[in-house]
Automatic annotation (TrEMBL):
The gene is queA. It catalyses: 7-aminomethyl-7-carbaguanosine(34) in tRNA + S-adenosyl-L-methionine = epoxyqueuosine(34) in tRNA + adenine + L-methionine + 2 H(+). It comes from Parafannyhessea umbonata. Keywords: Cytoplasm, Queuosine biosynthesis, S-adenosyl-L-methionine, Transferase. Gene3D superfamilies: QueA-like (2.40.10.240). Monomer. Belongs to the QueA family. This is S-adenosylmethionine:tRNA ribosyltransferase-isomerase.
Length: 390
């Protein structure tokens, strides 16, 4: 039985500190710098990050783009409002990609066989408007906690993606209640064109093209991976023992150019800095404990100066991953093989993200840093301020 409790990752946050809009400009937000060596903190702005990175360091960010995954429609027959949040296509069930894993509300009323109709403009569209997309609930997922398998049918003459764009909008988290600004502010400036995620990799929202240019001029490399953010972004850990929580799988890609950059960076004695928890999970998921050998810079640098035998340390390396799936769950006690420093936001209590950052630093350091941020009136969560953990 684990001695770690989910309550260990809880904290009290004043509601007024939940950010309702992004900083303007993006890189003007506050940044708390946490030094793992001694637990000390500094209070800076995000544009100061250039002072904490050295030539030869490697930034790795998640380039995924958020899709217009929130669909508001009406239940056929009753006219009741129904909300559907697209999480991931299930090509294993339908090669055309018309079947999706979704979260639905109200969950109790949307049972198998329920049909939802969507119109351009969402739930506020007049009922006389033409239906552009229809959905049928075909099965339950996630122990019936609002999770459904849904089959979508676009209107005649429309492709599915076109119909989703007509009916959907970018899904802001439920704690952002009154944002009416540009939805592009919930996308990173380096996001790819294709849309695959149900939520943004929010640590990357602080970067501007100008800041990235300044970083590159200093000799800091910038590479991207892709992880399609899915259901666990919306789930808190409900089990008392966090080791009993089951992570859902998410699709990710780590290309060979990223692997080569990691090798070169570590071989030269520089740091791999992950932009956000999704980049951390991508890089650490791409670590293969049975790959290559002692020459791996991932292994050699991590154990530099130790007397352990090559037999026990000479395995493991980051490898290319294309169209792979991960359910990696990082919590205190986990080993980080690739990532040396991390940029992240301030996370929801009792979440797997709190456990991940507590694994990278320590739980005590993270809790102290969060309390310092609250006292300094930092802005929390997706549109909130940043933390650099070094």
């Amino acid at each position: 039985m684990s001695t770690m409790r989910t309550d260990d990752f809880d904290y009290t946050l004043p509601e007024e500190l939940i950010a309702q809009a992004p900083a303007e400009p993006r890189d003007a937000c506050n940044m708390l710098v946490l030094h793992r060596e001694d637990g000390s903190v500094e209070h800076k702005h995000f544009f100061d990050i250039i002072d904490y990175l050295e030539p030869g360091d490697l930034l790795v960010a998640n380039k995924t783009r958020v899709m217009p995954a929130r669909l508001m429609g009406h239940k056929k027959g009753t006219g009741g409002v129904a909300e559907t949040l697209l999480l991931k296509r299930r090509e294993d069930i339908d090669a055309l990609g018309h079947v999706w894993e979704c979260l639905v509300k109200p969950g109790k009323r949307l049972k198998q066989g329920a049909v939802i109709e969507y119109r351009p403009g969402g739930a506020h569209a007049p009922m006389s408007a033409p239906v552009c997309l229809t959905a049928e609930v075909i099965d339950y997922v996630d122990d019936n906690r609002g999770g459904r398998l849904v089959r979508f049918t676009p209107a005649d003459g429309m492709e599915l993606d076109e119909a989703i764009h007509e009916a959907g909008r970018v899904p802001l988290p439920p704690y952002i209640t009154d944002y009416e600004g540009d939805p592009e502010k919930y996308q990173t400036v380096y996001a790819m064109d294709e849309e695959h995620s149900a939520a943004a990799p929010t640590a990357g929202l602080h970067f501007t093209p100008e800041l990235i240019e300044r970083l590159e001029e200093k000799g800091i490399q910038f590479k991207t991976v892709e992880l399609e953010v899915g259901i666990d972004t919306f789930r808190l850990v409900e089990e008392d023992d966090p080791t009993q929580h089951v992570m859902h799988t998410e699709r990710y890609h780590v290309n060979q150019d990223v692997v080569d950059a990691v090798h070169a960076t570590k071989a030269a004695g520089h740091r791999v800095v992950a932009v956000g928890t999704t980049s951390v999970r991508s890089l650490e998921s791409a670590f293969d404990p049975e790959a290559v050998a002692w020459e791996s810079p991932c292994v050699a640098r991590r154990f530099e100066g130790r007397d352990d035998s090559a037999d026990s340390l000479g395995r493991g390396d980051i490898v290319e991953r294309r169209d792979a799936k991960t359910s990696l769950y990082l919590m205190p006690g986990s080993t980080f093989h690739v990532v040396d420093a991390m940029i992240t936001n301030f996370h929801v209590p009792r979440s797997t993200l709190m456990m991940l950052v507590s694994a990278f630093a320590t739980r005590e350091q993270i809790m102290a840093a969060y309390q310092a941020a609250i006292e300094k009136r930092y802005r929390f969560f997706s549109f909130g301020d940043a933390m650099l953990i070094v």
